Amino acid sequence: SVANVGLESVPIEVEVDVAEQGFPGFTIVGLASKAVEEARERVKTAIKNSGFDFPPKKITVNLAPADLPKVGVAYDLPIAIGILAASQQCPILNELDSIFYGELSLDGSLRATKGVLLVGLFARRSSIFVPVESANEAAVVDGIAVFPVRNLKQVVDHLTGAKKMEVLKHVEVEELVGEELVDFDLAEVAGQEMAKRALTIAAAGGHNLLMWGPPGTGKTMLARTLPGILPPLLPAEALEVTRVYSVSGMISAGETIIRRRPFRAPHHGVSAAGMIGGGSNPLPGEVSLAHLGVLFLDEMAEFPRTVLEALRQPMEDREVEIVRAAGHVRYPAGFSLVGAVNPCPCGYLGHPRRECKCTDKQIRKYRAKMSGPILDRIDLHVKVPAVETNKLTAESSSPSLSSRERWWG
């Protein structure tokens, strides 16, 4: 099988011993996490419900190398196949170089499992047996045989030759990416010409952007148009983004690849770990989920200062390194930051029709939440003044991709 450490995959050998002597039992060794240890009950029940015999003997499963922590539920399938092979119920001599990866349900069926794309990229020139709901992720990898598995019995029938499985058809990434309709088109926004100009400059140069203005001036709507004027994802870029979403388990069942540039808009209550990534088994945070796309911070001054300060290193290095006692992982973080902020706590400083009730001290304290080093990393600062609401949007006679076509041809 395979262990995914960050965006890298490490081969894991699943060794199974069914001893004739000793008290009956089922032990998993090799720095297995709680989820892996719970596989004992899932595997045992799945084997029985699939019509096979679970040997009433002393069973020992070793996940090697033993010094690498094993996390997740993807070891269910290889453990079950190993037990059936060790008890002479399933031959695997012809599939020793194959990778088995997936979570078992109690009835023996396989559930969608995250990280399948990484498994496919690791298993170049090999065969992989993965859940049918996640198999499309690996279909874009050339040179491997992807077997979409519905249940445990289907794998055993294939290995015994009773009923061979069909290999999933390979799909070229180039066929999946390209022009798509955008959700928010800059061509549909009327007014705010200065902000629109700043957005196009940010898109062309990969700059970070901060929009200052009172509530209701269209800052959020303007920010949501940025992915629509960025160039379409290249095949290599789409694969890079999909790797991040695959290891996060955020690819829908049956989906093959991420086709659009990401747009992430976390709430201002997000934690530093949620923004940067973290956990005992570090997963990508918002900065990595926005890789090659847009990270939008609405009401930026309301974010905890610790969260904003944590953005310094990703904004500079375009990657994030998460260090834990068990090791460290790196995730890409090449995002374009777009921030929206009110000019003061009440939001109406300089508003032509509303009176600001904030004191100078309150305004200074409010703006001090965004430190100099963070503001220095934002190339473009633009004011978004108040306008009539009915002038913010207008019906466009241009097609939905008009803005992208204008700037990128």
From TrEMBL:
CDD domains, A to Z: AAA
UniProt cross-references to InterPro entries, sorted A to Z: AAA+_ATPase (IPR003593), CHLI-like (IPR045006), Mg_chelat-rel (IPR004482), Mg_chelatse_chII-like_cat_dom (IPR000523), P-loop_NTPase (IPR027417), Ribosomal_Su5_D2-typ_SF (IPR020568), Ribsml_uS5_D2-typ_fold_subgr (IPR014721)
- Record's SMART domains? AAA
Q: Where is the AAA+ ATPase domain?
A: 205-388
Span of the signal peptide: none
Write one Pfam family the protein is assigned to: Mg_chelatase
User: Mind listing the GO molecular function terms for this protein?
Assistant: ATP binding
Query: In which domain of life is the source organism classified?
Result: Bacteria
Q: Which family does it belong to?
A: Belongs to the Mg-chelatase subunits D/I family. ComM subfamily.
The entry's protein name is Competence protein ComM-like protein
Q: Species name for this entry?
A: Candidatus Amesbacteria bacterium GW2011_GWA1_47_16
